[in-house]
Amino acid sequence: MTGQPDDLDGEGYDIEDWGRLKPFAGRVATLEDVQARAAVFALGDTGDPRTIDMDLPQPVIWWSDDGELAAIAVQAEAHDTEDGETMEVVGLILPDGEGAVALLDDVDLVDDSDPVWRRLVTEAIGDETGDDED
Questions:
Q1: What pLDDT, in 10s, does the model give residues 53-67?
Q2: How far apart are CA 13 and CA 20, in angstroms?
Q3: Alpha carbon distance 115, 117 (integer Å)
Q4: Contact 112, 15 (CB under 8 A)
Q5: How many Å apart are CA 16 and CA 32, to the nearest integer?
Q6: 39-50: per-residue pLDDT in tens?
């Protein structure tokens, strides 16, 4: 399940105001939390769901199928699969305000001063406003 936290109301963020994003922390999200737009995702059919102890919101660089993307992690959970593997999953908010779900292994935790993260956010916002890249 994906969604976006309600405090965004579909709006994105830039390199200066990402800290206003409200994390979903303290417990594992339910479908109701996603429907209420308080959480990005809720996973079912997994064993031993638990939160991951990490500071949220957290700037990240997500290594997606589309290349590297700037995002803010606002949710972090660990879930065990039927095979006994542990999936560490993060709920992300992209600069355009959209929600996404990724494995923790597919993101690099960065500081908001990271030049690559800052460039990726700026480029994403430029795309949203119709500005051209180089």
A1: 999 999 999 998 889
A2: 9
A3: 6
A4: yes
A5: 31
A6: 999 998 888 999
